[in-house]
Request: fold
Amino acid sequence: MANVHMILQGKGGVGKSFIAAVLAQYMNAMGKKPLCIDTDPVNATFHGYKALNVHKLEIMEGDEINPRHFDALVELLASSKQDVIIDNGASSFVPLSHYLITNRVPALLYEIGHRLLVHTVITGGQALRDTVSGFAQMASQFPQDVSFVVWLNPYWGLIEHEGKRFVDLKACKDHRDQVTAVIEIPALKRETYGHDLSEMLRARRTFEESLQLASLPIMVRQRLKIVRDQLYGGLGGLVAPA
Reply:
C-alpha cells in the first residue's frame, strides 16, 4: 500500500511547494524514497529541487489545462509501490480537484490499496479567511474517508480569528473527523532564521545540501539545522520509517 500525499490549496503563494519539499526530505531521511510529482503548470517550484528527483507532469494543451492529462497522474499513482508526493499549483487547483471528485479518484485509490492524504495550508493575515474557506470547501466536497493534514503557516501573522485558534474555528470543528493531523510551521525571526530559510528556498536547495555546503557560514547552517529539526519533529506521527 502506498500513501498518496497531495498538496491542495486554491490560494497561491501560501507555501504548498515548501510543504511538498519538506515532506520529501523527511521521507528520504526516514529511509523512504517517495515518488515526487509536480503538476503546477506555471511555477513548478517543486520540480526545481534537483536533489528530490521530481517528475513534472505536463497538463497544458496550448494555453489551457486539459483535464484528460490528469489520467497520466492516476496511472503513475496506480503503479507506484512507494509513497507519492504531489504538489499542485493554484492555477490547476480547480481543474484537478474537479477531476478527482467527478472521476471518483479517491475511491479508486482505495480499491487499489492506496491511502489518500490531502495536505492543505492555513495562513495568518489577510489570507486567513480564504485559506480556511478553501479547507472547508474541500473537506465538504471530498469523500468523508479522505484524510486531511492541515499545515498552519504563521509567516503572514497569527492564525487566529477573533481570538480563536484554527482548531477552535467552526470550519475545523465541522470537519474534525476528517483531520488526521495539524502541523504548525514554526514562526521564524525574519532577520535570522527566516532569512536563512528564504535563501535556501530561493536556491532550491534541500536542508541536507545546505548543511553540507562549506561555503555557508557556520551559524547559518546551525539555524537551518534547528529549523529542519523543528519541522521534522511535527511529522513523526505522519510518516512511518521504512
